């Protein structure tokens, strides 16, 4: 079976996430190609696209292949739509408007009235019930596909904007990236009973996403009292709104450099965190300023890793976003990786790359997503 995954705006990260999630769910697959931001894979078994789209933070859409004649897509599309919508007005969408209108004409010529819907975004697909109608079609890499599931963007943005505890100052990790980071920590067996800590929890995005994904034993700490209050409000909100059961959370206001005073040695399975990233940037900072900031962050992170080494169980995993700063011509990076290794960690790379860069073109700061294992 062939499937097409539409990847988000950081395709390399989306791909790494898919690979990790598939490994943990023991889904066998082969990558066929990547084209137009779609990853095309072949699987032996049918995928549960609805379940997968809920789990993945970096995938926009999952489509399955429809058998078609590549010399006559128009005919194949017509046959498919006749088959899946045997009665009433046919409703369908297709990215290329010209071809969409041609399909509509062809359907009319064959005695069926039809409505062509321009697929502007996921909302168009959801609101017109095109998934249930099997009517959102696309040709990718010379194969015909229909959409089986799209990202629940409304639910995600509700979690983003409607939650009670909001921190405008230190900023919030996009929930999608939080989800991706949690997924990147998955091992070959999913175990939601694992203890997960975010030691720079801010308003708690990683912890709330982890709760929605099924993690039950959550630990959060932060130096700021407001952060702990916000995280508590947000966790209570998510537990109530999503009717989540059996969640135990423990929050503590503490400086990361003293973390082992509040947590037992060898007690945690996972640390997933976006640490303090330094003072907000405006883009006009000098290289000297950025270098100084990098040095300060390096000291903080190394002290944090000393603590992580104590409280993590052997083989415990850390997924962390380490910032890097954009200059006119290059990046200023925080030179801490060798020292982290000396503290007692090894890098677990992503598809032969030591880290994945999450960066939007207009941002002055990039987040390098690193994965470490305690040795
Ligand atoms: C970038 S924010 C984390 C945002 C969080 N991921 C979220 O989505 O809300 C960094 C957090 O680190 C906290 N922080 C800064 N220095 C710290 C330290 N030494 N120990 C613990 N927390 C610290 C700040 O209070 C802030 O809440």
Task: Give a nutshell description of this structure.
The chain has 375 residues and is of the alpha/beta class. The protein folds into 2 domains: 150 residues, VC0802-like (2-Layer Sandwich), CATH 3.30.2130; 215 residues, Rossmann fold (3-Layer(aba) Sandwich).
Descriptive report:
This protein has eleven helices and 17 strands. The protein is elongated, with a radius of gyration of 23 Å. 39% of the residues are buried. The protein is an alpha/beta fold and 375 residues long. The mean pLDDT is 95. The protein has two domains: 2-151, VC0802-like (2-Layer Sandwich); 160-374, Rossmann fold (3-Layer(aba) Sandwich). It has helices at 11-24, 49-55, 73-84, 97-109, 122-127, 153-161, 175-184, 205-213, 225-241, 287-311, 337-344; strands at residues 2-7, 29-35, 38-43, 59-66, 90-93, 114-117, 137-140, 143-150, 195-198, 217-222, 248-253, 268-273, 312-326, 331-333, 345-347, 355-358, 365-374. Strands 9, 10, 11, 12, 13, 14, 15, 16 and 17 form a nine-stranded mixed β-sheet that branches. The protein is 35% helix and 28% strand. Helix 1 (11-24) packs across helix 7 (175-184). The longest helix is centred in the last third of the chain and has 25 residues, at 287-311. Strand 13 (312-326) and strand 14 (331-333) form a beta hairpin. Bound molecules: S-adenosylmethionine (SAM).
